[in-house]
Amino acid sequence: MSGYRRPLFLFGTRPEAIKLAPLILEARRRRGLEPLVAATGQHREMVAQVLAVFGLEPERDLALMRPDQTLPDLTARALLGVGGLLRELRPDCLVVQGDTTTVMAGALAAFYEGVDVVHVEAGLRTDNLRSPYPEEMNRRVVGQLARLHLAPTPRAARALRSEGLERTGARIATTGNSVIDALLLAVERAKSLADPAPEVAEARAWKTAGPARKLVLVTGHRRENFGPAFEEFCLGVRDIADDHPDALVLYPVHLNPNVQEPVRRLLAGRANVRLAPVLDYLNFVAALALADVVVTDSGGVQEEAPALGVPVLVTRDTTERPEALAGGGVELVGPDRARIREGAARWLARTERPAPASPYGDGRAAVRCLDAIQRLPVEEFAPPE
Fold first, then answer.
1. CB 273 within 8 A of CB 241
2. Catalytically annotated residues
3. How is 228-295 classified by DSSP, letter by letter?
4. Other Cβ atoms closer than 10 A to 363
5. Contact between 7 and 96 (Cβ < 8 Å)
6. Any bridge partners for residue 125, and if so which?
7. CB 139 within 8 A of CB 122
8. Which residues is 149 bridged to in the sheet?
9. pLDDT above 70 as % of the chain
10. Per-residue pLDDT for 320 more than 70?
11. H or E element: which one contains 150?
12. Is 100 in contact with 136 (CB distance < 8 Å)?
C-alpha cells in the first residue's frame, strides 16, 4: 500500500465535519496532495456552520436527507450516492471519520469500487451492538473494510490489533483525536465572539453576576434513548433546575422530533431553563468553556469537555471512550433520573472543577493522520500519565 496522493474526505454530520476539518486544512498545506471534499448532506445546516469556521466548502453535496426517513432509506441512498461519486472522482482513498451511517455506507461503497478506506477515530468499542445504536455496528463494519486505521488512543489501537486486522494487510497508527485540534482553534476564536448567540450572552452574564451562579450545559439526542429512557433523562434535567435555582440550565435542543417533543413538554417554562436552537460550533464551544458541569449523551463532548476541565455526566449505560473515566471528571450515569440529579448536585457543590487534562489528543492529531496517509514515519500519540 503506497502513500495516498488524492484523498477524498467524506462527512455527513457536524461531529464528522469538526473532526475532519483539521485534516483537510493540513492536507491543503502539504505539497503533493490533492485533497477532495464531499458531504452527504445529513446535517447540512449544522455542517455549514462548522465549515464556515474553518473556511471550507465541499466540492460535492449529495443532499441525501429526506423527511421522516428510516435508517435503511438513508443507508441505501448513501451507498448509491457515494458509489457514484467515487466513480466520478476516482480518488485513491476515501477518508471517513467515526461511526455514522455516512461512514459505514461510504466505506462499503469504497470497498465495492476498489477504493482504499482510511478510518479516522478507529478502534472505539463498547462490545454491545445495541449501545450505541447503530454506531457500534457501523464502526465495526468499517473496521473490517479499512486499509488504514487512525486510532485516537493507545487503547483504541490495542482493540484493533486484538481483532487481527493487521493480518489482512491493514495498517494501524495511533494519532490522537483531531477533535482536540479543532477545539483548541475554536476556543481562541470563541473568546473573541463579538456577537454571540443570545443564550450564550445570557450565560456569560449569568456567570459574572456572582460566584454562586452556575451553568449546566445539556445535550441529548441518542437514538437508543428515545422513548421512556429519554423522558427519564429530561426529568433528571428538570430536577437539576428545580434543585439549583442559582444554576442556569442551557439545553441546545436537537432538531429531531423525537427529541423536541419530550424536551418541550417536560422542560419548557421553567425560570432557569433555556431551551435554545442548536448552537453553531463556536457558540457551543463558548458555552462549554463557561459550564460548571455538562449532562450529555454525546461522544464528542466526552472528548472536548475534559480538555477544558469541565466535568461530564454521560447519560448512557456504556461508553466507547473510557479513557477519561479513570480521571474522575467523566461519569457514566445512564438515562437515570436519580443518578443525573445526584451527579449534578455533587459537581455543583464543588468550588473547583477538574484541571484540564485530555487523554484524547495534544492538538497534533491532524499532522499524524496526514503523515500516515502519506506513509511517512508517524510519531505515535501517547497521552500523559
1. yes
2. 99, 121, 135, 221, 223, 254
3. HHHHHHHHHHHHHHHH-TTEEEEEE--S-HHHHHHHHHHHTT-TTEEEEPPPPHHHHHHHHHH-SEEE
4. 17
5. no
6. none
7. yes
8. 119, 172
9. 98
10. yes
11. strand 148-151
12. no
pTM confidence score: 0.90
Cα radius of gyration rounded to whole Å, the chain: 20
If we measure between CA atoms, which residue out of 154, 188, 185, 160 comes closest to residue 360? 154
pLDDT of residue 211: 85
Q: Which helix (H) or strand (E) holds 301?
A: helix 299-307
**In this predicted model, what pLDDT tens digit does every residue of 15-70 receive, in sequence order?**
999 999 999 999 999 999 999 999 998 878 888 989 999 999 999 999 998 888 89
pLDDT, tens digit, for every residue of 280-305? Answer: 999 999 999 999 999 999 989 999 99
Q: Provide the sign of the torsion angle of the four alpha carbons 323, 240, 335, 187, taken in this order.
A: negative
Residue type, 41: G
Q: Residue 93: phi, psi to the nearest 5?
A: -160, 155
Spell 125-157 as b/e; 16+ CB within 10 A means b. Answer: bbeeeebbebbbebbbbbbebbbbbbbbbbbbb
Strand residue runs (E) in 66-147? 93-97, 116-120
d(CA 114, CA 81): 16
Residue pair 295/340 in contact (Cβ under 8 Å)? The answer is yes
Residue (of 19, 17, 2) closest to 360 by Cα position: 19
Number of Cβ within a 10 Å radius of residue 117: 25
Instruction: Supply 275's cell numbers.
Output: 431551551
